[in-house]
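Why does this matter for the project? Reviewers at the last site visit asked to see concrete outputs rather than summary tables. In response, this paragraph embeds two records directly. Each consists of the residue sequence and, immediately after it, the corresponding structure tokens. Nothing has been edited or filtered.
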Amino acid sequence: MTAFQQHLPMQILPKENNPEGIKYQGFFDTMEATRMKLTMDPIFFDENRGKTIQVEFSMSNYNFAFESEILPGEERGFVYIVKPKVIHKSQIRKSPRLRCHIKFNYTIWTETGRYDGFITDLSTVGLKMKADKYLQKNMILSLNVYIAGSGLRFICQGLVMWSHPAPNMNDVFLSGIKFTTLSIDAMKKVDKYIQEELEKNSKNY
């Protein structure tokens, strides 16, 4: 369990009464003998949830997941879960990517205010964005994406994987964002949109 570092982003997927596969953002806090303590998004405590959960997180080029249960004794902003005995590891798969220019807005967990940006590359696992703000690695963003004319809208959290100045552009930064709480239902809609747009683009050549 030495791989767990404080503030490691984790996602909680309730297994009961959750047909859409909604995930909640959290962070690893401490490891104890039989349990783990996680900092959770406040919205998590407002939802009607069961005890059985799946916990997901990423490090390097791998995704990790394990089954667990929520334990009694939650504190304000924190939740305790059963320490896992088995953690499943899988390599992050590449998915079809769509080059685009889509305006969207986002907020930063640790700051107030809403910011605008442009999606330049979209997939079911994340996006590449252009904005006039530098984003530090491992920042958590709340993403609000609406693509007019397509009916596609999704709101989720994302983890900043990298960020650097855009070549030959003053005060513009490129950033790579990995989706962390995109639901299964929303992921299917994003995939459908990408496939349809790729098919349209192929017919134009």
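We now turn to the second protein, recorded in exactly the same manner.
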Amino acid sequence: MEELKEGIDYAHARDAKFYVAANMVTHEGNEEGAGAWFRELRDLGLDAVIVSDPALIMICATEAPGLEIHLSTQASSTNYETFEFWKQLGLTRVVLAREVTMAELAEIRKRTSVEIEAFVHGAMCISYSGRCVLSNHMSNRDANLGGCSQSCRWKYNLYDLPFGEERRSIKGEVPEEFSMSAVDMCMIDHIPDMIENGVDSLKIEGRMKSVHYVSTVTNCYKAAVDAYLESPAKFEAIKQDLIDELWKVAQRELATGFYYQAPTENEQLFGARRKIPQYKFIAEVVDSDKATMKATIRQRNVINEGDQVEFYGSGFRHFVTNIQDLHDSEGMPIDRANRPMELLTINVPQEVFPGDMVRACKSGLINLYKEDGQAVTVRA
């Protein structure tokens, strides 16, 4: 709770809101202590909790009055009547089910005043609104208690099981490893549709993602929203830059989910990848000295003297330079840094700020498929 308080204060000092996901599906006994927990969150200054289970909603509303409640996407809200039902129970925002189309979103907006939060980027669950039991069955990790092992993304062999006299044998193996894994969602091209159809909040799925991924993606969508609100022409002018920027992070292939059509086999992950991210996250800035133009960075991947890198930060700031005057944590000059999380110092040609990220166009190991469908790990 002390760390949570620190995070809330940090966010509020920067005019950001702080939410806590409490969207587990409760079994008997899981709700014990929830009332006190919600009250403590409220007293820490939390802006809202995101909940899906009606039991926890009731406990929060009755035992922690004043704490705002948002409905999780796992509650599968797909129509305005559902929005109105939750409004009567005091909820102020509903996170749409990811299965909602753009036309349905527009109709919901016309018929309710409840705030709409909608997914625009990130992992798509193979199961309806994230309610899956594959992980429970295959790894004894409950997807609806926050423990999903993403069993759908594992590789599976497909077999033809014959009948009659040969039914005990297995033959006809298909030479490709299939999965039930969906591509990721990306709506960066369609921010105008999201805004014009009345979405109040854009949701980026960032669970188990790196700080590099989260910072890059949120930077892109913030730039897209700001540009479109300034003028549609401004948005169109930077749209391709935003798309290119998104491909600098490690992710799956991208599609628009259910917004414009039902997903097909083209929105599933099997066979050869059609596009591969080319950049690697190598460091983050922890301190800088404008007088000496030196920066202290925390290493996240191997860094070499002379590497070409890109710095980026909030407000869509970017510049490209080379690693120069690399020193280790003891101040000794080095040609190569390969100890994760070590503090290093380098020269920078322009001012950088704590929290800025550093990435390089570098090779790395990646999982691909050969033409016959077999998986292979290569250095890309």
